[in-house]
Amino acid sequence: MALKQNNLVVKKNVLNELRANNMTLQELRFFSIYLSRINPEDISTRIVRFSVSDFQKIMELQDRIKIDYLKQVTNSLLCKVVNIPNERGGYTGFQLFKECTVDMDNKKEWYIEIDAHDKALPLMFEFKEKYFSYKLWNALKLKSSNQLRMYEILKQYEKIGYRIMTIEYLKTQLGIDEKQYTRFNNFKQWVLEPCQKALEENTDIRFTYEPYGTKGKGGKVLELKFNIFKNNCYQDQLTLDEFIEEQKELEINPEDEQQEQEISRYASRINFMQEACNNEFSKEEIIVLYNAAHKILPDSDFHDDLTLFHFFKDKYDELNMRSKKSNIKYRFNYLKKIFDAEI
After folding, report:
1. Which positions fall inside the Initiator Rep protein WH1 domain (predicted)?
2. What is the DSSP string of 225-236?
3. CATH number for the domain harbouring residue 40
């Protein structure tokens, strides 16, 4: 099936208020694309198919396609959990997706099919009110998970024209550790200003913000008011097909003998990087860091196992050093930001 252009992402408000655990920019973008491909009025459209080539480009996978590598990436998608709070202070947790199939069609072309979890269906289908929508192109040029989440958080309130949030709540929605950016000036410099610039350049909304409400001890800013405006000054719209075409063309040959050797080396390298981090993080999390390291290091350093090991170990040591100075609740998220700071 050819990927459509100018798709509309329709998202239930309650789903937008939830933060799926540890979703990367690529996974957030994929979820937006998935929502743009289904018909929220027809539950039979819950299974969405992508060619492996298109999936690889959407997820910005940098290596040749390997079945074992795809397994790691799709398993990570299948592990994404949302928690629905209840009125008694408890919650119900479940996955967004329940099943993924990688196979060949009758034309011997590889494809990926993904199906929403049964528990998640009420969040994606057959709702008549309390939802918002946006054109998919808005999600395609944004360069960080913070930018994409900020866009959705504010787009939901575009018709109202403003949104008031505590900084604590906003950090939760962006997946930022509560102990990170404790000074407002740092939060402004590293989160608010980059998001403001990115949305104005690449999306159909822009925003300003100002401190709101009572301040905390020492005049600390606790709450912000975001003023949301329609934006007509963004760069040219990017269709999904154009986004895919911009990604690197990669060869697909899962049965190639040389590729099997690469699969083995790749798995070995991931295990080696886990050891550099004292086996604290899952393979899926190490893969996220591995892809970030590929963007940071020169090719000669990235492809040298020992150099890459020491790079991971240095970043992990930095995480532990910072942990001694302040309590870091979400250690993987914090380590990912240490990596991202060098990209």
Report:
1. 9-155
2. EEEEEE---PPP
3. 1.10.10.10
